[in-house]
Amino acid sequence: MSLLLGDTAPDFTADTTEGPIRFHDWIGDKWVVFFSHPADFTPVCTTELGFTAKLKDEFAKRNAKAIALSVDPLDQHKAWIKDIEETQGTAMNFPIIADVNKEVSTLYTMIHPKADPKVTVRAVYVIDPNKKIRATFTYPPSAGRNFTEVLRLINSLQLTDGYKVATPVNWTDGDDVIVVPSLSDEDADKLFPKGYRKIKPYLRVTPQPNK
Questions:
Q1: What is the pLDDT of residue 189?
Q2: How far apart are CA 130 and CA 183, in angstroms?
Q3: pTM over 0.90
Q4: Which one of 17, 23, 101, 134 is least enclosed by Cβ atoms within 10 Å?
Q5: Could you give the CA distance from residue 155 to residue 64 in angstroms, rounded to a whole number?
Q6: How far does Cα 9 stand from its chain's mean position?
């Protein structure tokens, strides 16, 4: 059965390029981006891992970190890292899980047999410090993911956790946000001292409250 938003991310133990981990312990008090790759020594994955490594400081600003998975063995991961660092111009700075027996990828529904029974699809799980799954998306093996969008998604999740707002289409950090419909005008007046613009009774726009 597929994992759903709000579910606790399943715990597991695994070998990684940075040593063995127990997943929940490794998460600690951080937000986590857990993402899978079809195979080592593949071109799209090489670009994705390199770009994610370059985002380490951006993840850190959000109390977040990344971890990847492939069903290839650990020695191949370590050899592949050399290629990633050479071709992408960055040092790898997050672990890659060696899921040789496909236990973790099966647990997280990362193998889609009708797409390809032998490899993992490009799955992404955003997990919060409470070990809850907050967002997921899945791409086919042929399409590289947009990790700038992953950062935007974390921005939205963290903002909406702290304030009674939602983020509109194409929102980026600093843009106006939407007052949640469940909040009355009277309560909105108290919670948003900068005011809000009432376009429709259910559509009220306010400046981002933490800016």
A1: 96
A2: 26
A3: yes
A4: 101
A5: 11
A6: 13
